[in-house]
TrEMBL record:
Stored CDD domains: TM_PBP1_transp_AraH_like
Official protein name in the record: Ribose ABC transporter permease
Superkingdom, taxonomy of origin: Bacteria
InterPro entries tied to this protein: ABC_transp_permease
Keyword check for Transcription regulation: no
Transmembrane helix found in the keyword field: yes
Main location: membrane
Pfam families (UniProt xref): BPD_transp_2
Length: 333
C-alpha cells in the first residue's frame, strides 16, 4: 500500500500543474496568440472603422513590407545573429531601383538588379561576421550608418520620384480583388517556411543557432551557411524596399528608418528565440500582425507619433523580456 501511495505521489509530481502549463504556453507561442486576439478585440471596441473591409485590407497591404523583412530576419535570428542594418537596406534598395527606372532601365531588370545589390550587401555583412569573426551587432550597426550615408549621397538628400505606371503596379496594383503586395508577401512567406522547415539548409540554420560548435563537429560548413543567411536576408530585404518604393512612388533615403526594430520585435513576438536555435515563420506572421494592427489602431485613434514611439518601445521591451525568459527556461532544463 505504501509503495502505491509513493508511486501515486511521484506521478503527481511529474505531472505539470496548470500554472506550469500556462507558463510554458505563454513562453512558447501563446503570448503571440493571446496578444493578437486581445489587440484585435481592443481595437475593434475603440475604433468603429477598425473592422471595416477596406481598413483590414489596407493593414495587410501595408504590412507586406514588414512581413517580408521579418521573414528574412527570422533566418538571421535563428542562427543567433542580428541585423540592425535592414532599415538602411530598405532605403538603399529604394533609391537604387528608383534611380535606375528614372534613367530608363526596364522595370523587371531594375528590380532584379536591386535584389542582386541587396544580396551583395548581405554577402559583405555575412563575410565580415563569419570570416572576420566580428560580432553581428557591431557589423550591422556600422552598416546601418554606412548604407544610410550611401543613400543620402546617391540622392543628394532629395527623394527620387518615380512616374512609371508599370512600377507603381507592384505596390498599388491588384490581381482581381487582391493587392499585388499581398500576393508577393504570401509567396515570400510560403517559400520562407518551406526553406526553413523542409530543406537541409533550414536544418543547418537551426543547428547553428542551437550550438554552433556542435554543428561544426557534425560536418556543417558553418561559415558558408551563415554567409548564405545574410545573402538571403539582403536579397529579400531589397525586395521589400522595392515594394515600399513602388507603393510610395518615391525612392527616399529616409525610407525604412526604424523598421529594423519593428522587424526584430515582430520576429521575437512570434516566438523566435533572440539567442538563436528556435523559431518559425508561422510565429513571425503573428508577430507582424501584432505590430501591424497596433500601428493601424493607434493611427485610427489619432495617437500622436511620440506616444506611438513610446508604446512600440514598450512592446519591443516586452518581446525581448519574453525571449529572455524563454531562453532561461530552456537552459534550466
Amino acid at each position: 500500500m505504501k509503495n502505491n501511495e509513493l508511486s501515486g505521489q511521484a506521478r503527481m509530481l511529474q505531472k505539470p500543474n496548470f500554472t506550469r502549463k500556462l507558463s510554458a504556453f505563454l513562453l512558447d507561442k501563446g503570448s503571440a496568440v493571446i496578444g493578437l486576439i486581445l489587440l484585435f478585440v481592443l481595437m475593434s471596441i475603440l475604433s468603429g472603422d477598425f473592422l471595416s473591409v477596406d481598413n483590414l485590407l489596407n493593414v495587410f497591404r501595408q504590412s507586406a513590407v514588414l512581413m517580408i523583412m521579418a521573414v528574412a530576419m527570422t533566418f538571421v535570428i535563428i542562427t543567433g545573429g542580428i541585423d540592425l542594418s535592414v532599415g538602411s537596406q530598405i532605403a538603399v534598395s529604394g533609391v537604387v531601383v528608383a534611380g535606375m527606372i528614372a534613367s530608363g532601365v526596364p522595370v523587371p531588370l531594375a528590380v532584379l538588379i536591386t535584389v542582386m545589390v541587396g544580396g551583395i550587401i548581405g554577402l559583405g555583412i555575412g563575410s565580415a561576421i563569419s570570416l572576420q569573426k566580428i560580432p553581428p551587432f557591431i557589423v550591422t550597426l556600422a552598416m546601418l550608418t554606412i548604407l544610410s550615408g550611401v543613400a543620402f549621397v546617391y540622392t543628394k538628400g532629395t527623394p527620387i520620384v518615380i512616374n512609371n505606371p508599370q512600377f507603381r503596379f507592384l505596390g498599388r496594383g491588384y490581381l482581381g480583388s487582391i493587392p499585388i503586395p499581398i500576393i508577393i508577401m504570401v509567396v515570400v512567406v510560403v517559400l520562407g517556411h518551406i526553406l526553413l522547415t523542409h530543406t537541409r539548409f533550414g536544418r543547418y540554420v537551426y543547428a547553428i543557432g542551437d550550438n554552433e560548435e556542435t554543428a561544426r563537429l557534425c560536418g556543417i560548413n558553418v561559415r558558408l551557411v551563415k554567409i548564405g543567411v545574410y545573402v538571403l536576408s539582403g536579397a529579400v530585404t531589397a525586395l521589400a524596399g522595392v515594394l515600399l518604393a513602388s507603393r510610395l512612388s518615391t525612392g527616399s533615403p529616409n525610407s525604412g528608418t526604424g523598421s529594423e526594430l519593428d522587424a526584430i520585435a515582430a520576429v521575437v513576438l512570434g516566438g523566435t528565440n533572440l539567442f538563436g536555435g528556435e523559431g518559425k515563420i508561422t510565429g513571425t506572421i503573428m508577430g507582424v500582425l501584432i505590430i501591424a494592427f497596433l500601428n493601424n489602431g493607434l493611427n485610427l485613434l489619432n495617437v500622436s507619433s511620440y506616444n506611438q514611439m513610446l508604446i512600440k518601445g514598450l512592446v519591443i521591451l516586452l518581446a525581448v523580456w519574453l525571449s529572455t525568459m524563454k531562453a532561461r527556461k530552456a537552459m534550466a532544463k
